[in-house]
């Protein structure tokens, strides 16, 4: 079934490219599925978040899987005279709805295609993705208090705090076209309070996002391109 998985993946990516270039879709790749997600994990029951980077694992989720999204944006860092290495101060990402892809994944194949998507999506222009017709489920940013925030509109709001993180696998994309400082950690965030309808999020299959190792010669702030899968649970 590898061929079928690859075909699905390529079809999705062609459709992605077509929307970005504002051309009509040439491929009937994306079935016209309802935009409203089934509640309670219906339709998502065959999917489970990757937890292992090959040597370490994140704790398993306890909630119900609600959404799978593809994040694309920047991790923001600062440097100043007292810092030897960059410090994370924020992020800015659009969360694309992975649902149009799910019906294309052959049953029983796990998430092999999904898992590869961030390493492709990072090669697309962030601004073009934001302006495209690809269905967006929400946005990710740090609020004014520096709390990682995931705003899925009427589908929920997660104010996160870190629970666990593990390094990305060695073969993760280092950045756009595999150029960069490496892939940010995989991590689990849980409700920091005042979340609505969402309790846990997993950032996995990361591509890019890591800062340069040293502040030497760096002009802050630094915006580093990244992509990742974000899996949301309630
Ligand atoms: C799920 O529950 C287990 C047992 O209490 C805990 O160790 C783990 O950290 C929890 N996972 C999350 C994502 O909260
Ligand atoms: C440098 O940045 C760090 C992290 O943001 C901050 O805690 C520290 O106060 C800053 N130092 C100066 C001199 O601006
Ligand atoms: C992060 O960087 C983006 C640019 O990608 C910017 O729009 C956003 O305001 C920044 N947020 C923080 C908290 O630095
Ligand atoms: C991030 O990607 C955008 C295109 O999406 C590009 O214009 C920008 O130069 C990249 N930033 C860095 C720091 O590589
Ligand atoms: C990394 O290697 C694993 C094991 O071969 C593979 O399943 C995965 O797709 C690879 N990841 C990337 C981003 O190429």
Main sheet properties: 8 strands, antiparallel, barrel
Radius of gyration, Cα only, in angstroms? 17 Å
**Percent of sequence in beta strands:** 25-35%
Global geometry: globular
N- and C-termini, Cα separation: 32 Å
Low-confidence stretches: 21-42
Query: Compounds present?
Result: 2-acetamido-2-deoxy-beta-D-glucopyranose
Order of neighbouring strands in the sheet with most strands: 1-2-3-4-5-6-7-8
Give the topology, please.
Blueprint: H1 2-20, E1 65-78, E2 87-97, H2 112-121, H3 126-131, E3 136-142, E4 148-151, E5 157-166, E6 186-191, E7 200-208, E8 222-233
Antiparallel strand pairs: 1-2, 1-8, 2-3, 3-4, 4-5, 5-6, 6-7, 7-8
Helix pairs in contact: 1-2
Bound molecules: 2-acetamido-2-deoxy-beta-D-glucopyranose (NAG) (5 copies).
One 2-acetamido-2-deoxy-beta-D-glucopyranose is lined by residues 59, 61-62, 163, 188, 190, 200.
